[in-house]
Amino acid sequence: MSILILFVGTLFVGIWLNMHYEMPDRTDPAVIKETARAVTAIQRSVTATNGAKSARCSARLLKSEGGVAMVHASCALVPGPSAVAGPFRVDRDGAVETAGDGDAFQNDVKRMFGSRLGDWYLNHANSFSYVRPPVDPASGANGPLTTN
User: Fold this and answer.
1) Secondary structure element (H or E) that encloses residue 39, with its range
2) Cα–Cα distances in Å, from 82 out to 44, 53, 56, 74?
3) Which of helix, strand or coil describes residue 99?
4) Which of 35, 81, 124, 128 is exposed most, by the fewest CB atoms within 10 A?
5) What is the pLDDT of residues 48-95, one digit of tens each?
6) Phi, psi (rounded to 5 degrees) for 72
């Protein structure tokens, strides 16, 4: 009986940890600064990768650790009407990585974000609201994405 209770308790804690993830406080000045750094790098990368004239992005910082930013971003390409959205990892030096398509997506997200945040992201990615990016990406007014 005690083994069953231990198993059920362990299972419950594991499920709760997978469902719960505390994101950084968007009003914290350090989070605002790190989000702006990530958005600048993502805009540069998305522009170059997609052959656009420019990109206007908004991002929600999910985690920042050791100079590495893990974000969900939504970008409008100029000229439009194309858009890019998804998980991005921005390294200390500004190198940007995003998850591949199809079968690679889940493994890439877990590799980029780590197992715990990766699992959380995969279970909650559809809850992100895709907000219209700001008109002037150079203004620093890149508003974060919100979750429903």
Assistant:
1) helix 29-50
2) 16, 12, 11, 11
3) coil
4) 81
5) 888 888 888 999 999 999 999 999 999 988 877 788 899 999 999 999
6) -105, 125
